[in-house]
């Protein structure tokens, strides 16, 4: 009986033709077996073989700069950072007081340019108490340019560079306004490099200044603040610049009561000897079990670039780990930068070993041939 069906060879040819017409889904261009980059209008997500991290472009979960709050994952242990993000950037500042023009510090967006101290001679008790706790009283400083980048800046469009063994993300922003008598427009650049196989990243903050200053510095959080309730998220802190050559381990119990930056655990270049390595870290703790996890550390690769640094307990259960870099004379048209390593470590000895390998650098460079640390 005759059949209306095509012959078997014809069926095979038809199936091949249909299959070739169906689009094959492939990984996005630039992805590799060890790394993936996902980007949308709001943020860039980096996934490597060791880490995950999100870099915001707009509408951040907390701050606009650095690594987004809660996104920095250590795949080996499942721990994340427990603050408000990593390597968050603040104002461009200098030593001195803004009392002479403090009443004029009103930014175009309606916020203050940054009356840094909210002067500790405030007469209103609550305001004065906050000012002293947050800023101390021993070292007067003032903003030069705004906005406060961590949460006042407009959306950005970071540039992504992919290499065989690294992913780099560069973000830039021009400061939009300045205090009376100064210029606006200094350029901030943050360059982050995620190397293959590492539980940490490299980061540079650079300023190209449009102002002269006798003592200009950039403020950031290195590695980042710590949110806790009586030490439930971390068991101890480590600072390399106190306690002698081996540094000092500080139990979490020291942070149960608020204290200002100049009370304890601080560093100032004019009052302290520069350490061989400049490292600050906190030992993560599982909130549910109380078991210790890895250390989350920030390594500033040239100790002499640090102007001042502190880890102090503010009201509201937050330890701020602020670091100010450079703090030297600069002329308009000149620049300065600081280079850091930030990430997870099993031991303090491991931090120092990594530091020793990369010490002495203040900048990062990325191009078609790869990335490198620069002095």
Please write out the topology:
Blueprint: H1 8-21, E1 35-39, E2 43-48, E3 51-56, E4 73-74, E5 89-95, H2 125-135, E6 141-146, H3 149-152, E7 159-163, E8 166-174, E9 177-178, E10 187-195, E11 200-208, E12 213-221, E13 226-227, E14 234-239, E15 248-251, E16 266-268, E17 278-285, E18 292-300, E19 306-314, E20 318-330, E21 335-345, H4 348-358, E22 363-367, E23 370-374
Antiparallel strand pairs: 1-2, 2-3, 3-4, 5-6, 5-12, 6-9, 7-8, 8-10, 10-11, 11-21, 12-20, 13-20, 14-15, 14-17, 16-19, 17-18, 18-21, 19-20, 22-23
Counting DSSP H or I runs of 4 or more residues, the number of helices is 4
Assembly state: single chain
Secondary-structure class: mainly beta
**How many structural domains?**
1
CATH architecture identity: Distorted Sandwich
How many whole angstroms does the radius of gyration measure? Answer: 24 Å
Give average pLDDT, whole number.
87
Q: Which runs of at least 5 residues are low in confidence (pLDDT < 50)?
A: 1-29, 114-121
Number of strands: 23
What is the chain-wise order of helices and strands? HEEEEEHEHEEEEEEEEEEEEEEEHEE
